[in-house]
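Notes to self after the call with IL:
- keep both proteins in one doc
- input above output, always
- annotate only the second one for now

Protein 1:
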Amino acid sequence: MEKLIQGKFLMLMLLFFVLSLHSFSPVFGVEIEEKTDFDFSAKEYQRFYTKLDGEWLFFEDELFTSKEARRGKVVHLLSSFETQVGTKNTYGTYITTIKIPDHFIGKALAIYMPYQYSAYTLYVDQVAIMENGAVGTDSSTHRSEMAPKIGYFFAASNEIELVIQSSSFAHIRGGLENSIYFGEATTVTRNFNNKMHLDFFVTSGLFIMGTFTLSFVSFRKSELTFLVFGSFCIVIASRVLFADPFYYTLFFPNISWV
């Protein structure tokens, strides 16, 4: 009877863990639209939040902050350097233009960049609003960092020029392979905070559950199931900090092995 109760308890805890995996969702009650032309000027938005997946211009082996009269290669994001130019160790500049409704002029907007397998600096109308690692032209000047970032700016007109300098060297992957999100500053921030809070809520639950289960071991040392399951919960809870979306970078941004 006692072993039956223990088995049911462990099954209940495992069920809680499995269900918690479905809560790691990137969007919370916000309207998401996929565009390829990045023209949002013809519609009224209550809560503006969109992906920037689509066609961008890419300039390999060039780093600049404005398109000017240059001609680049049309590539589709999301995709890696290897898909775009045939190598994962390279650098270059992505550029696109975003048209926004007139009522967003002068308002605070934001861009959310999840972790990327490369270093980058993001410019809005030639002003840097976000950087991750150090963009370089070779492995000696490049430094990778995989951290989620949010950059804020005020729209000066209804047409925004977005430029991303990016580089990748000595990494298993390279390029911008995760969706970039753009929208009103409050909506972008709220969505990121909601996801982070939910992730940490689930992580805390796993950690408490593991600690609680391990406490039984001091009373019932012969019950190895409690030891295994408790250790498993704590390992999974710890792993969340060091896996996608790499929350440890928010708390330890300057550690050398980021």
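Protein 2 (the one to annotate):
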Amino acid sequence: MNDPSEGRLEAARRWLENSLGGRGYRRVRETNLDVHALALCAQQVLCTAPLIVAMGAVLQRETGKGAAYFIDRFFGLYGQSAEAVNRLFARTTHISTFALVFALATSIVFSTGVAAVQQRAFEQIWTLPRIISVRSYLRQLVWAVMLGGYSMLLLALGRAGRELHETWGRPGQYGVACVQGAVTFLFYWWSQHWLLAGRVRWHALMRGALAVGLLTTIMFRLTRVIMPGQMAWPVRAYGLIGGVFVLSVWLMILCVVIFGGVLLGALLTEKRAENHAERHGVTARSPLTMAGMASAESAESAESAQKPAPVPARQG
């Protein structure tokens, strides 16, 4: 006779496996999403940071204010923490126009590494095959240019938020935070569509973009409260390298938020499609477009063709 407690435990285990958290955990382990987040963080440090510095050099030539000024406003830094960022991004020599253009173009080209890591993670989240082609690289290059514009827009909004806070108080600051969230939502809605080459429906990508926009808005607000104090003591203890460490940790959290938001959106889309299919007794609608389904089918055909044929048994 079965123990009722064992039946309840088994039911609880099945419920947990089918829950959003259980599905998310399995998907993270299957796709190694944590490894992709680490890779994206490394690419952000090596590629996105130089891109922001290069674009900041352009702004400094045009406006007299460089990357450090906008970063201070974005993070809400002041005192010793702001001084550390100013020293970290200080320009000590004059840069010629040719060197400036070359640095900007080089940083954009290397930022395609950020696009490649995100594209691969998005493909695995949506269980799509990997695309490696010249057209894919050109998409990554265009995305890198848009990343530079998106980053500078967020930094400019951070500066505006600080100025509006001094003028209008918290309502102005909250208004800028909402604009930052809307910009992030639109950028990552487009980014998923662009990097996935239109293989997933726009509607299916919207939930992930909404999650990323909401989570980053919360993160940016907390950043302005926590970052000044967190930046000050590592700089006092370890010098400028302490500031670099704090910024790297912040980028790591940002990468987790981005991939976590996209994954959450994909899981919600799949769950809603399954619930709709169960209620109406139909097959769940695929979130993939015709191009996406053709890409998945061709990858399955290629995989099955590579499998070795079974060896017939020898008759004695």
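Annotation: The mean pLDDT is 83. The radius of gyration is 24 Å.
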